[in-house]
Amino acid sequence: MAPGRLDPAADAPRPPGWAGVTGCGPPFPSEGKNPVTATRKPRVAIWAAALTLPLSVALLAPAAHAADTATQPFGPACSSVPKQGAGSLAGMAKDPVATAASHNPALSTLVTALKKAGLVDTLNNAKNITVFAPDNAAFAKVPKATLDKVLANKAELTKILTYHVVGEKLAPKQLNNGSFTTLETGKLTTSGSGTTYKVNKTANVVCGNVSTANATVYIIDSLLMPPGMMTSK
């Protein structure tokens, strides 16, 4: 053992690429890398990636939902639409709007009103329109005597029904804070976001963004009245 050496192993030959620490146990790589921390770093990277992935998916989910809303029907009443046949969402997409509505049981009162007003062909032949279609529950809110009176007055009925029609196809995002001129010439307003919208602050969209051959339909739960025209109770 050389003078001043405390450990005989210190004089033993060292493997190439290793620099020993005299008298202090096993040597470390000459590159200065600690085997423990070198192993730990890849594991930390793996855990970081595992934690980041769910967060990325969560951030992307709202965007995916918004994309679905822009192209698919939405709303609680869509679940009651027939699953098959001409009255289904797929079936309605093949027919012009008045014909498509006639196949949907929830719109039977509206179809009766359209026939009495002579508007079936008018709507079927129109191009690229939006119809805010009152469902049967919407008409049921009107007192029967009043409804019968309106249905018997073609001019008044036509005014009411054409107030539910806008001369362009409206996407859901256009309803966020919208104001649109109707075929009746009066204006209606829309508000909301996502899958929740109101028309004139009173009617809720219960099944929206329904496609027909010539129109986009938003089924609503209340009848819309043109400005200056009110139904008596």
From TrEMBL:
Comp. bias (Low complexity): 1-12
Superkingdom, taxonomy of origin: Bacteria
Keywords: Signal
One Pfam family this sequence matches: Fasciclin
Segments of this protein annotated with the region Disordered: 1-36
Residues annotated as domain FAS1: 94-224
Gene Ontology biological process terms in this record: cell adhesion; extracellular matrix organization
PANTHER family, sorted: FI19380P1 (PTHR10900:SF77), PERIOSTIN-RELATED (PTHR10900)
Protein name: Immunogenic protein MPB70
